[in-house]
Design goal:
alpha/beta; 4 helices; globular
Length: 112
């Protein structure tokens, strides 16, 4: 499967503000993307639509974004709510796309 790899160093995430800042940096969210989970999921839903200019990172045609969470275990222990929300919302983006007849656009990797 073709993919674009996005690496997220979760050690820099300590609260909601840093979560949104790190995500915006990793995905290159547009300046108009608000710092809330509704806007976050809307931006991620556009990962295969470069013309929408919601992100600077894009999935290749027919491929996915592979989000690699560095230090994922530490992140889950240190910030359990943020970790759980991240996992849930990534799944929501793919689920919503499937309901709309689109292919999933996100894949998650959590190396040790």
């Amino acid at each position: 499967m073709t993919h674009t790899r996005v690496i997220l160093d979760t050690s820099r995430i300590t609260d909601w503000r840093s979560f949104h800042a790190e995500m915006a940096d990793a995905f290159g969210f547009s300046e108009s993307c608000e710092q809330n989970m509704d806007a976050w999921t809307d931006c991620l839903d556009e990962l295969d639509k470069p013309a929408g200019e919601m992100t600077k990172v894009h999935a290749p045609p027919g491929g996915v974004i592979l989000l690699e969470l560095l230090k994922a275990r530490d992140f889950a222990e240190r910030c359990p709510l943020l970790h759980a929300t991240l996992i849930e919302c990534l799944g929501f983006v793919n689920h919503r796309r499937l309901e709309e007849g689109k292919e999933p656009v996100l894949c998650l990797s959590c190396p040790p």
